Amino acid sequence: MAVEAGQQQIAPPDVELPRQTAEGGGVEQQPESSTPPSAGVLTPRLAALVIGLGLLLIWAYLPSFRRLVRVWWSDPQYSHGFLVPLFAAALCWYRRDRVRWELVRPSWLGVPVLLAGLVLRLFGSYFYMEWFEHLSLLPVVLGLLLAVGGWELCKAWWPGVLFLIFMIPFPYRFEVALSDPLQKIATRASTYVLQTLGEPAVAEGNTILVNDTRLEVVQACNGLRMAVSFVALAVAVVMVVQRPIWERLLILASALPIALVSNIVRISVTGLLSNHVDAEVAQVFFHDIAGWLMMPFALGLLWGELALINWILVEEEVPERVRVRPSAAGAAGRPKPEGTGRPAEGSAQAAPAARRSPGVPGKKRSKKKGARRRR
Q: Which pTM does this prediction carry?
């Protein structure tokens, strides 16, 4: 059935007709949207959900947070715990460019992870194991991250969540198991250093005898405090620096030896001061000055390690290939490529057809034209 010229075409309600342009009556192309139709966006409702879940998490773990703050304040070994949540938040902010926000959407994958964290918390509370109760904070935060933002948000921010483990104190049995070996290592290594420097040092158990001075390497001086703090700092450096993966692994592997070397240097310098200066000066250096200088000294050793890696492994810069266009003079002497009928560019064979020899087909065509004119 024909449609009259003035009659408008009626379309179904869910079909959008293309609009015509004013010039020429052409069909105007609709711009395609760069955002996928199923992509999620960070709506105000989702932001309110994140804030609400964060407040609920703080309320649920408030007793655990109080115990952690008490340990951070009273035990110098874990005094860095105040900085761990701040660095974790800063690390997530630093990695925000890796998140494709148009793909962030809630996911049910966070529910089993969240339930696993809650089960771990109930297990620690029932058996009075505070370490498991504190450790359950990590899967709970990870589960909330998955539930709110899905895998896209989790794969960008998981390092910040994992770094929260450094704010949790070690179990008591683990500390006791590490204390005795670290004391023996510090005592014997410091004694060897003093003997190498010519000092009359002898090790008896966890005590170093330097002439008439006794240096006792007690549990607080075994280097565990320095090791925990410096390993946390090394992990933070690895998460921030832009280096190959093997260099990051090397930094992590060298964190514990550097911390032990710093503690050995501290004990050795104390032995030198007690033998050559005064025992009181040595005690002041050991408990006050050296405590502040150990971390900068360890950072200096780490910087020296990175500088040594850069000095040994020199990256060779590969120059880019420059494509040079041949000149006419250089192309004139270029031989004609075999197997092709086309002469080389700029060669003497590329002359006009009028200058060809009589046996060339172009010359024959000129004779035919002259014969037609005579006729």
A: 0.65
Structure tokens at 277: 């200066």
Task: Render 158-198 in DSSP notation, one character per residue.
Answer: HHHHHHGGGGSPPPHHHHHHHHHHHHHHHHHHHHHHHHHTT
250 in Cβ contact with 243 (< 8 Å): no
CA dihedral 183, 185, 190, 192 (to 10 degrees): 140
Instruction: Please name every residue paired with 216 in a beta bridge, in sequence order, or none if there are none.
Output: 207
Chain mean position to CA 252: 13
Q: What is the mean pLDDT of residues 229-235?
A: 90
Q: Are 230 and 255 in contact (CB under 8 A)?
A: yes
Q: Whole-angstrom Cα distance, residue 290 to residue 33?
A: 62
| Burial (Cβ within 10 Å: 0-12, 13-18, ≥19) of residue 110 | buried
Q: pLDDT class for 65, splitting at 50, 70, 90?
A: very high
CA torsion through residues 247, 248, 249, 251, sign: positive
pLDDT for 35 beyond 80: no
